[in-house]
Design goal:
The structure holds two protein chains of two kinds.
Chain A lengths: L3 E10 L2 E11 L4 E5 L6 H9 L6 E6 L2 E2 L10 E4 L11 H13 L9 H4 L3 H19 L14 H13 L5 E5 L7 H18 L2 E5 L3 H7 L2 E6 L2 E6 L1 H6 L4 H6 L6 E7 L4 E4 L2 E6 L5 E7 L4 E17 L4 E7 L5 E6 L11 E6 L4 E4 L5 E2 L2 E2 H11 L1
Helix pairs in contact in A: 2-4, 2-5, 4-5
Chain B lengths: L8 H28 L3 H4 L13 H11 L2 H32 L5 H13 L2 H14 L6 H5 L6 H12 L3 H9 L4 H12 L1 H16 L3 H6 L8 H11 L5 H21 L1 H11 L3
Helix pairs in contact in B: 1-14, 3-14, 4-8, 4-11, 5-8, 9-10, 11-15, 13-14
The chains are: A alpha+beta, B mainly alpha.
The structure holds adenosine-5'-triphosphate and magnesium ion.
The site of adenosine-5'-triphosphate (ATP) has 12 residues of chain A, from helix 1.
Chain lengths: 383, 278
């Protein structure tokens, strides 16, 4: 069980900055997901925490103690790799036993032939066997202990890799996209298993993924990384509903959030597509970008209109792609009720509630909004 | 179905050429076996025949073993080639691991030097190495036969290329599990690289078992002779070369390689495909 603190972590490869000053604190027992587009430095950050990659500057502290310069194994963290990284020449049992043998047996006891005849070896091997078998039992891989990794399916390999991580009872688990090599169905299944494992072990999990469904469903907190910076961390709901940066808003959520060009007037009101919204803000007048999630777009009523250009009916829900009249803009609306789909090329009106709107300044930072209507109603009452 | 595939002219030509090539390659061996089976009188008779009229293989073998301590020479061959191979592996694997998986200043330069080293023929360095061994007082010993070959740049190159294909994650997983860097070489990389090590072993053993040049230079004592020198001994020492026993001895010394090849044929071919070297 561990708390991990990162302060001002910087890392560059051959002159290119990959991590640009990461400050972050992972609480004890948390399930934290690191998400972000490919190449944003997620794996690098995880490897810095693990000690596999030394940072150029900054400090990593585990349980308050700096671990810089401490070897990966001495940090007592376990890592599960995307490729599972099982030892191909060892069977499942030996794969899981490696960390225990490395820790519990002396160098002489590990020697191939001589080691086996040393007096203490027998008892230690028996303990190791018990521990490995207990883990195998928990992970449902007991029948596979004699097989080599080459004879296992992807899901089974995944489990063996998790077993190898669990067996040493590490202070924290680091996962680097552990499910990305599995097919969609197995992925959903393993997702539930990992979440269950986290609840059972109550250990700190740091989980790298670029699959937002994994991040949203499993984690207690999500940290979104972009271009080597950590731009927002929060619960899945916070990240989804209150993105502080337009890149977070666009990265989380599928289909993507709709972004429309808007304008902040001198009086603080907000116009979008030439229509005033019932909102105000304190920001300076100028251009802004207005984001509305597809499920918050109400079709059939509202000040805007568009033409249906594409329909995606998924059975339980449908996505309607609209081309907004008078501009080249497209947006996507989610329809929960697939029985009343608009026809292709038909014209529909749409709108959205003021509290569905998130606006961002040209640099992409979130602008705080005041929803006007309730204020006006309330104002006279106070006076 | 009636008209069978016409056998294309090119295919016939190809096979004729291959058979001719094989015949040329095999001729000396067939001649060796033939001569080893003939009594002295038939060897020197003017008529040309492969199958001896009178089989004398047993007598020739007996004479070969009587005249020279062939078993001792074979043992020397085993000691020298096995020592060379083991030492080469002990040097090449850690070096190849460092060149393939560790990041340090000057790594590319080092690797360039290794490549450069492959280009230098052993004969070019023979004289300096000979002088070095002389100064160290090691001439005419097993050490003189083994030490100059312990660092095989070809081995380092071959293993480095193979280690490049081992995923980095595997190395990192080993580090997380607490295996030291040397431990990674022997416990993770070596088992993963068995095909490459086998291929290298075949090249190394064949080259040093058959090496005539170097043992000839550094050896004086008869009891240290390696198999190729032993054969030469038949030619030089006797008043008039006795070809029958000589060919029988030659048969004996190539036998271990032939037998090993038959056992490891698959591996041998794998190894050649692996290295892309003929
Ligand atoms: N060993 C290395 N040498 C040079 N550059 C590297 C090295 N490792 C990573 N990089 C670079 O650092 C950047 C971040 O890589 P990283 O692997 O952390 O990305 P990621 O967020 O994990 O991406 P993905 O989702 O594709 O796994 C990339 O541009 C990558 O090219
Ligand atoms: Mg990655």
């Amino acid at each position: 069980m561990a708390q991990i603190e990162l302060s001002a972590i910087r890392k560059s490869f051959d002159g290119t900055d990959v991590l640009k000053g990461i400050d972050f604190r992972i609480e004890d027992g948390e399930f934290i997901s690191l998400v972000g587009p490919s190449g944003c430095g997620k794996s690098t950050l995880l490897r810095v925490i693990a000690g596999l990659e030394p940072q150029n500057s900054g400090e990593v502290r585990i349980d308050g103690r700096p671990v810089d310069g401490i070897r990966p194994s001495a940090r007592n963290l376990a890592m599960v790799f995307q490729s599972y990284a099982l030892y191909p020449h060892l069977n499942t049992f030996d794969n899981i036993a490696v960390p225990l043998r490395m820790r519990r047996l002396s160098a002489i006891e590990r020697l191939p032939l001589l080691g086996a005849v040393l007096p203490g070896r027998r008892a230690k091997e028996r303990h190791i066997r018990n521990d490995v078998e207990a883990i195998a039992e928990q992970l449902d891989i007991a029948p596979l202990l004699r097989r080599k990794p080459g004879q296992l399916s992807g899901g089974q390999r995944q489990r063996v890799a998790v077993g190898r991580a669990m067996v040493r009872e590490p202070r924290a688990f680091l996962f680097d996209e552990p499910l990305s090599n599995l097919d969609a169905k197995l992925r959903v299944h393993m997702r539930a298993e990992l979440a269950e494992l986290h609840r059972r072990l109550k250990a700190t999990f740091v989980y790298v993924t670029h699959d937002q469904a994994e991040a949203m469903t499993m984690s207690s907190r999500i940290a979104v990384m972009m271009d080597g910076e950590l731009i927002q961390a929060g619960t899945p709901a916070e990240i989804y509903n209150d993105p502080e940066d337009i890149r977070v808003a666009e990265f989380i959520g599928s289909p993507k959030i709709n972004i429309l060009p808007g304008r902040i007037r001198k009086d603080g009101g907000v116009d979008v597509l030439g229509t005033a919204l019932k909102l105000s803000c304190r920001a300076a007048a100028g251009d802004c970008r207005v984001g509305v999630r597809p499920e918050r777009i109400d079709l059939g009523a509202g000040p805007f209109s568009g033409t249906v250009v594409h329909l995606e009916n998924l059975g339980a829900e449908a996505f309607v792609h609209l081309a907004i009249e008078g501009s080249g803009l497209r947006l996507i609306a989610r329809l929960a009720d697939v029985r009343h789909l608009p026809g292709m090329a038909s014209s529909v009106t749409f709108g959205f509630a003021p509290d569905a709107v998130r606006i961002f300044d040209p640099a992409g930072k979130r602008i705080e909004l005041k929803v006007e209507q309730p204020e006006r109603v309330r104002e006279p009452a106070h006076v | 179905m009636s008209n069978a595939h016409p056998i294309p002219f090119r295919a016939i030509l190809r096979h004729v050429l291959l058979i001719a090539g094989a015949a040329i390659m095999l001729a000396p061996f067939i001649w060796m076996i033939s001569t080893a089976s003939k009594p002295q009188t038939e060897i020197f008779s003017s008529e040309l025949h492969l199958i001896p009229h009178q089989f004398a293989l047993a007598e020739n073998l007996r004479e070969a073993f009587a005249k020279a301590n062939l078993l001792r020479f074979l043992l020397n061959g085993v000691i020298v080639t096995v020592s060379i191979f083991l030492l080469q592996v002990m040097v090449a694997l850690p070096a190849a691991y460092a060149l393939a998986k560790l990041r340090f200043l000057g790594r590319e330069t080092m690797f360039a030097l290794v490549l450069f080293g492959i280009l230098i023929p052993p004969q070019a360095t023979a004289v300096p190495v000979f002088l070095l061994l002389h100064k160290a007082g090691l001439l005419d010993s097993y050490a003189a036969l083994v030490l100059p070959f312990t660092i095989s740049v070809f081995g380092i190159f071959l293993m480095r290329q193979f280690f490049k294909t081992v995923p980095d994650d595997l190395v990192d997983a080993a580090r997380m599990d607490g295996i030291s860097e040397f431990g990674i070489v022997w416990r993770v990389m070596l088992p993963a690289a068995i095909p490459a090590v086998t291929a290298f072993g075949i090249f190394s053993v064949v080259a040093h078992w058959n090496d005539y040049f170097w043992p000839l230079i550094v050896l004086n004592s008869e009891h240290l002779r390696t198999p190729p020198l032993a054969v030469a001994h038949f030619r030089n020492n006797e008043a008039g070369t006795s070809y029958g026993p000589l060919m029988a001895a030659a048969m004996v010394i190539i036998a271990p390689l032939v037998i090993a090849f038959l056992f490891a044929q698959r591996r041998f071919i794998e190894g050649i495909t692996l290295t892309g070297i003929k």
